[in-house]
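DM between two lab members

TW: hey, do you still have the FAD-binding protein entry open?
JB: yeah, one sec
JB: this one, 396 aa:
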Amino acid sequence: MRSYEPTGEDEAAGMVREAAGRTEPLRLVGADTKAGIGRPAQDAATLTVRGLSGITLYEPAEMVVAARAGTALAEVQALLAARGQMLPFEPMDHRRLMGSSGEPTFGAVAAANNSGPRRINAGAARDSLIGVRFVNGRGEVIKSGGRVMKNVTGLDLVKLMAGSWGTLGLLTEVTFKVLPVQERVATLAFSGLDDARAVEALSAALGSPFELTGAAHLPAGIGGPEARTLMRLEGFAESIDYRAGELRRLLKRFGLPEIVEGEAGAALWRGIRDVEAFAGGAEAVWRISTAPVRGAALAAEIARARAARWYYDWGGGLIWLATEAEAEGDAGAGAIRAALAAQGGHATLIRAPDPVRAAVPVFQPLAEPLMRVTRGLKAAHDPKGLFNPGRLYAGI
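TW: and the structure you got?
JB:
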C-alpha cells in the first residue's frame, strides 16, 4: 500500500488532487493511535500529517494556540503548561485502551472531538475550536474561523470538521482557545453508593452553584473493591474550602466524603479519562451517551441481556461499558441499541476485533433524514469519496 507524507499544506493539496485524479481512496492519519476506532479501512493508500508539524501561533494573553495538524499534542500541552495554561476539555489519551503507540497529534483532537471529564464544565473540544485549515476532496485549501470566538452565519465549517474523523477533509492546522490552570484541585470521594444513589448524588452536586469540573462513579470492582463516587472541584484554595464544605452539607445523606488531592487525585481522573479500567483486555468497549438520570437504568437493562462491566462519567451521562467481543457475535450491539431505544441516547463501539466492526454499526445508526444530510455533506466536501471511506458509515 502506498503511503504519502507531505511536509507542507500545498504539497498535501497536490497529493489529494493527484489521488482524486486516480480516484484513490486515502486513509488519513496522524500518529494512528485511534486506528481501531470506526469501521475497518476501505482505502488504497495512507496519507499522514506527521510531516505537518510545528506551533504556528501562541498568544498567552489572548489565550489562543494554533499548530499544524501533525504536531504532537504533548508538545502543545507542554508549551501551555509552561505559561500556566491548558486545553479546557481534557482530551483523552487512547493508547492504553487501544493498545496503540506513537504520539497523539493536535489535529486528531479536533478530528475526533476528543473530550474528557471536564466536558461537563468546559464543553467539548469543538466548543474551544475556533479555527481550522484543511484540504477538501478536490485538493483545495480551505480556511475557516480564526483567532477569536464569533457568531457564524451559514455553514460553520469549524464545528463541522470537529468529530468528522477525517471523512470530510485533511486537517492541516487547528486553533483552540485555552484556559488558565487552576490553583488547586480537590476531589470529594464518596464510598459505597450503588449506581442509582451515585447518580442522584452527582445530579444534586451538578445542580448546585458549586461548579464541579468532574463527576464520575466507579462501581465496585472498577478501580477498587468498593464503589466510589467522585466530584472534582478546581479554583482558588479558599474557594475550594468553601465549596467542599457546602457540598458536604448538601450531600450529607450520601455519607461523609474523603478529600483526594495532589498526584493521587490527578491519577484518579487520568484513569477515568483514559478508560484505564478496560485497558489491555480483549473485551469490546462501548462509549454510551444518555441523559444522566437514565444512566443507571440503561446500564442495568444492558446487564440483564448480557454480562458487562461499566462506569460513569459526566454525572452519569457517559457510560464506558466492556462486554465480551465474540468473533462471530455483535459485541452486545443488539442489547445496547435495544436498551437505547427504550432509554434514549447513542453508542459508539470504540474497541472490537475487525470482523465485529465490519459486521455491526460502529457509530450510532442515523435516521434516514440525517443520513441524507450526512451523504450530502460528504458529497459536497469529498465528491469522489477519497477520505477514510466507510469509516463512519458503510458507503460514505
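TW: got it. Residues 9-22 form the longest helix (14 residues). The chain has 14 helices and 18 strands.
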